[in-house]
Design a protein that fits this description.
single chain, alpha/beta, Rossmann fold, six-stranded parallel β-sheet, 20 helices, about 15% strand
Length: about 500
């Protein structure tokens, strides 16, 4: 039995903390079920700085300090493990999540304080790691799905861990360990729909793992069957992900019964009024289940008394509801009119669409399978169903050009929407990171860690993968798109062509 401290690192410091860390909450529940003594310090929720972190680390004789997160939390993780090793020299420091899985050898080399890492899915691996803490010999390599150090201190991967087949065997996340009332419920509101703006007690869920798409900018965290272990001629084992012509996908999801039982539990215990599905792509699951999964979720939502019943003020404006509204992600080519209407009747308020671009030649390179026509069709279908579509657009793709900028601006005009595009960002684990890694490193003086430290949520510009435009040009082009300023776009294109006729891009 281990005395375990989870630390949720700080992420997205430019915004308030909005989401209980689902992965940590789930692993905490698994650890508790195994009999371990578990505490959580949610540094992202409290944001109290180094002094408080040191006080937490000194508060008990922790045997294990466990962290995890996405790549953009790397800066916080790096600082946290440094302080943790100072304050808890005898504790086992464990790291997991996408930040490690995407670059296991590099992260272990950059973070010498980490004793062992969990590569890929941790549902089975993590409890086995905890069980070895009290062993006479901590031979981490005997546990599949880990990375640890050999006698010379060199990171070594153990054999690959297979994915959990039956997700319904998982416990509910340990929401009780996180500051719901003090932090997360106070930040329940989302500006995507009237219901989202009125939400007072929102919690998030993740009910599927995987996606059928091969989007070249996307990384599936090692939980979608896209991770491969490869052995070099020298015998060294490494991890690789999507690359041209080599795609694999494993689609897994909770049963509708499990999902609705969990939400009913959340409603009864925490009086939630809103649920956000964190899933990568809800419509993949619906298509994969032969169009039964989402329909059954909606049916059970009604049967369990979760379908929201609105209340109105004297002026006839909705001011609340009894039940649980919800939202999540959709896909332009996979949604149907029928399922959208069914979802709305069960309380769906908004759906995020990764349209990425409305330029045909750009979309062909993304790997999403969508076209400008399917993007626009899904937008209007969703509106007609009474659900707010939330369009996501990206610029700075490798084949971005003036025509694609104009195609996007024209689509914004046709749809009557205001969009502030994200910048194409090659996150570790994605196909485009693999293809452009040398260039990205060169942009950061040959220091890959500097690039990782600079990564954010793609609202700011970092490494460039665009063939035609540099960082300054992409920032300016985004402003012109937001303004719908065709005149200055024409002026800039003329100037750009004059310069690059004399100095063509290589």
């Amino acid at each position: 039995m281990a005395k375990l401290l989870f630390i949720n690192p700080v992420v997205r410091e430019e915004d308030v903390p909005r989401h209980v860390p689902y992965g940590i909450a789930l692993l905490a529940a698994i650890a508790i079920d195994k009999g371990h003594l578990v505490q959580v310090y949610d540094a992202n929720a409290w944001r109290l700085g180094e002094e408080t972190l040191r006080e937490v680390l000194k508060a008990d004789a922790w045997q294990v300090i466990a962290l995890g997160g996405i790549t953009t939390a790397y800066g916080s993780i790096k600082e946290t493990v440094r302080i943790a090793r100072q304050e808890c020299p005898d504790a086992v420091i464990m790291l997991g999540g996408g930040v490690l899985t995407s670059l296991p050898h590099e992260i272990m080399n950059w973070l010498p304080e980490v004793d062992v890492g969990c590569v890929g899915e941790g549902f089975i691996t993590f409890p086995e790691m905890l069980a070895m803490v009290d062993a006479e010999s901590r031979d981490w390599h005997r546990i599949a799905g880990t990375i640890s150090r050999n006698a010379q201190g060199k990171p070594v991967l153990s054999p690959q861990r297979t994915l959990l087949e039956d997700l319904d065997t998982l416990p509910y996340p340990a929401w009780d360990l996180f500051p719901r009332e003090e932090v997360y419920f106070k930040n329940s509101q989302m500006l995507y729909s009237p219901e989202g703006m009125l939400a007072q007690r929102r919690l998030d869920i993740n009910v599927s793992y995987g996606c059928s798409m091969i989007c070249r900018y996307c990384y599936h965290l090692g939980i979608a069957g896209d991770m491969r272990y490869e052995t070099s001629e020298s015998g060294e084992v490494s991890v690789s992900f999507d690359r041209p012509g080599a795609y694999t996908r494993t689609i897994r999801y909770h049963s509708p019964e499990y999902i609705v039982r969990m939400v009913r539990h959340m409603r009864d215990k925490y009086a939630i009024d809103y649920v956000l599905f964190l899933d990568e792509n809800l419509m993949t699951m619906d298509q994969h289940s032969k169009r039964l999964w989402m329909k059954d979720i909606c049916r059970l939502w009604h049967e369990s008394g979760l379908a929201p019943i609105p209340s109105y003020d004297a002026a006839g404006i909705m001011n609340g509801w009894e039940g649980v509204h919800w939202s999540g992600t959709s896909h332009a080519t996979l949604c149907t009119k029928e399922i959208l209407k069914t979802m709305r009747a069960a309380g769906c308020s908004h759906l995020v669409y990764g349209y990425e671009s409305f330029a045909p030649h750009v979309l062909k390179t993304v790997g999403k399978g969508s076209t400008p026509a399917t993007n626009e069709r899904s937008f209007f279908w969703t509106l007609e169903a009474g659900i707010r579509p939330v369009p996501n657009v990206i610029i700075g793709f490798p084949d971005e050009d003036f025509q694609s900028i104009r195609d996007n601006m024209a689509a914004f005009d046709r749809l009557g929407i205001q969009v502030r595009p994200h910048f194409a960002t090659a996150y570790p684990g994605s196909e485009w990171f693999t293809l452009h890694r040398d260039s990205l490193e060169a942009q950061y003086g040959g220091n890959l860690e500097s690039y990782i430290l600079d990564l954010g949520d793609a609202t700011k510009i970092t490494g460039i993968i665009c063939k035609k435009f540099n960082a300054v040009e992409l920032i300016g082009l985004r402003e012109l798109m937001c303004e719908g300023n065709y005149r200055l776009l024409d002026v800039f294109e003329s100037a750009w062509k004059r310069v690059h006729q004399e100095r063509p891009l290589v």
